[in-house]
Amino acid sequence: MEILKAQNAAFSYVNRYQRVDAVKNASCVFETGKVYAIVGKSGSGKTTFLSLLAGLELPSGGTVLFRDTPTQKLDRDRYRREHAAVIYQNYNLFPLLTAEENVLYSMNLKGVRGKAARARAKKELHAVGITPEQFKRFPPQLSGGEQQRVAIARALAAENELILADEPTGNLDAANGEQIVSILLRLAHEENRCVIIVTHDRDLAARTDEILVMRDGVLERER
């Protein structure tokens, strides 16, 4: 089922020296139950496009629509809080909160608290391979792969339909990267989420349902 759509979405900005057309009239439909890879060289515009999909930026031309509503008309903080979880390469965990507290935070923002929230946090941490003894550890006490799994558990606990991941395996070794990919595939194929991954990793992209290529700001469908 269609959940997100870009219609001739464009994004431009002016730096000290020139105008940069980072995304040029990109159009694509994203559906639940599928994993999408957005690939391209550094500077091609793929991360900027992901920012448009996440509502972190607004298009300077065209539209991005979540369930047929343009992001310009959404409460974009609420959109990310309740619908579109962003998973970053550098994890973006709160360093002074434990793994469990990081997951609880996403639910507290949605008004879910108390025993039910704590039980769900533990359930989602367990689902991504975090052990009970790691629940009380702070992010600096966890490996990169463990921190990324906590970030995914946080997105799961918030029950967001959209998972937008920017180079989620970029800082991980092969074994940890494989675990993260398996989790993201499961989220789409077993839990009917829409997962969109920006990646340089062609092996990862080959395992997704659809591959989109960004070349100099132009989005093309490869598969």
Oligomer: single chain
Q: Approximately how much helix is present in the residues?
A: 25-40%
Number of strands: 10
Strand order of the largest sheet: 6-7-8-3-9-10
Separate helix tally: 7
Task: Describe it.
The chain has 223 residues and is α/β, with parallel strands linked by helices. It has one domain (2-221): Rossmann fold (3-Layer(aba) Sandwich), CATH 3.40.50. 33% of the residues lie in helices and 28% in strands. The protein has helices spanning 46-53, 76-82, 99-108, 114-127, 144-157, 174-189, 202-206; strands at 2-14, 19-31, 35-39, 61-66, 69-70, 84-87, 162-166, 194-198, 210-215, 218-221. The protein has a six-stranded mixed beta sheet, sandwiched between helices. Strand 7, helix 6 and strand 8 form a beta-alpha-beta unit. The longest helix is centred in the C-terminal third of the chain and has 16 residues, at 174-189. It is globular, with a radius of gyration of 17 Å.
Element layout with pairings:
Blueprint: E1 2-14, E2 19-31, E3 35-39, H1 46-53, E4 61-66, E5 69-70, H2 76-82, E6 84-87, H3 99-108, H4 114-127, H5 144-157, E7 162-166, H6 174-189, E8 194-198, H7 202-206, E9 210-215, E10 218-221
Relevant terms:
alpha/beta, Rossmann fold, six-stranded mixed sheet, 223 residues, 7 helices
Short description:
The protein is 33% helix and 28% strand. It has seven helices and ten strands.
